[in-house]
Amino acid sequence: MPPLPSLAASPSPRQRTFILLALSLGGFAIGTSEFASMGLMLEISRGLAISEAQVGHLISAYAIGVVVGAPVLAFAGASVSRRTLLLWLMGFYAAGNLASALAPNYATMLLARFVAGLPHGAYFGVAMLVAASISPPEQRGSAVSRVLLGLSIAILVGNPLTTWLGQQFTWRTAFGLVSLLAIATVLMVARQLAPDPNEARTTPMRELRAFNTPQVWLALAIGAIGFAGMFCVFTYLAPTLVHVTGVDERWMPVAVCLFGVGAIIGNVAGGKLVDRLQFRAAGVLLAWSIVVLLLYPLAAHSAWVMVPAVIAVGTMGALAAALQTRLMDAAGEAQTLAAASNHAAFNTANALGPWLGGMAIGAGFGYGSTGWVGAATAAVGLLLWGVAVALERRQAPAGQTCT
Questions:
Q1: Which end of the chain, N or C, is more open, meaning fewer C-beta atoms within 10 Å of its C-beta?
Q2: In Å, how far from its chain's centre is CA 195?
Q3: What's the confidence (pLDDT) of residue 101?
Q4: With helix as H, strand as E and coil as C, how does 186-254 read?
């Protein structure tokens, strides 16, 4: 792979830690905002005098913003330095969430959530490129996972916190808090990440040409399909626990926290696995996902067995670091566009998984069937991974092994 251009001249381990902390704070802000509408569905519904289904539309508007904004903003910012792009994207995110906090009605809130979603994917893409570029090559996976760690901590801490604040005061508090976190990220990045006058620059058209390669598209397809299983199960976790496991609704926050614990474990372990196995880690994680999802319907009949099962589902998020690192290797000069598009692929999975799970439930297969559906999507992802490996081996020079 072509070496990633450094954004700062050999930062010390201490400087690298502070930079990664700043980037992770941005991930925490984004994760908190993304899940806030789910935890505050009833409060938003009452506050804006809209139905719960319309609150669902607000969640969808944000996801659509991510899918649209990730490639568009990455393409538009291809010639801008990554430090500057990070500052603009997080400033944009602060403005979108402030607009959400101040929205007076459904129409303006719908627009505000779409706007807030636009910088989501591009920020994560650029932040992980920065994390990899300031880290030793053998620690790229761990660096990428530390940026994603902010997203996992948001599930564990940010979502319960904003839900509590919204219940105690007003749902607008949640989005106002996210706006403050985004501004804090801007200040930390500006202070900790030094400008690099020697940073290699590209152009939007050069990125677009380099983006159109089979390995890039295969990596994105693995994310869009192979990741759908996790979202399929997580979306219907509450009704599964209530109607299949027999757990009282008041335990739902605990279940979400268990999922967050699994996500943190997955991020840390997944980063180390990527450092050790490179792209082979994606195959291992997809195989792990298939096993977890196949066992999920059986675990759903016991509350105690569901504790490790929900944690295990959360660990499937480790696939994100593996695919993000793969795109760094495969994208050539399309680093920014490919990295940002990875999050568009994940949001496609976020739409595909619940849709397929809903079809299975609607057909009468029960809530536990989301595990079987998820296992099938993970199996397709593993098949695509095999195609990518086979294609790479066929194209590799004689005597060169594939990662």
A1: N
A2: 27
A3: 92
A4: HHHHHHHCCCCCCCCCCCHHHHHHHHCCHHHHHHHHHHHHHCHHHHHHHHCHHHHHHHHHCCCHHHHHH
